[in-house]
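Example 9 (inverse folding). The structure is encoded as follows.
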């Protein structure tokens, strides 16, 4: 079972999470989609609320699933599985580029 993080970990964990997600989401398809929906709808605050709730819901799913997996797998096995998954994705992307 994963022990709760001490309160002194809040700031560095929060900051690294915020910056990583913020930078990863800049200019991605979600941001471009919300830009287009906002431009078409003329209701930017409604679009903002819908997009924000959707991102909160997907983040909550990621956190809950990550927590559930972390309680069942050792960090070493988890690292190995993630490495295999990334290799598989890289291989599929390279295969897609080669066959295109």
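The amino acid assigned to each position is listed next.
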């Amino acid at each position: 079972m994963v022990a709760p993080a001490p309160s002194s970990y809040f700031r560095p964990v929060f900051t690294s999470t915020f910056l990583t997600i913020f930078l990863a989401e800049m200019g991605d398809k979600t941001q471009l989609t919300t830009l287009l929906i906002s431009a078409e709808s003329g209701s930017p605050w409604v679009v903002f609320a819908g997009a924000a709730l959707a991102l909160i819901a997907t983040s909550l799913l990621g956190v809950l699933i990550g927590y559930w997996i972390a309680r069942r797998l050792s960090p070493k096995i988890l690292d190995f599985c993630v490495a295999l998954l990334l290799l598989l994705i890289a291989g599929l992307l390279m295969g897609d580029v080669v066959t295109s």
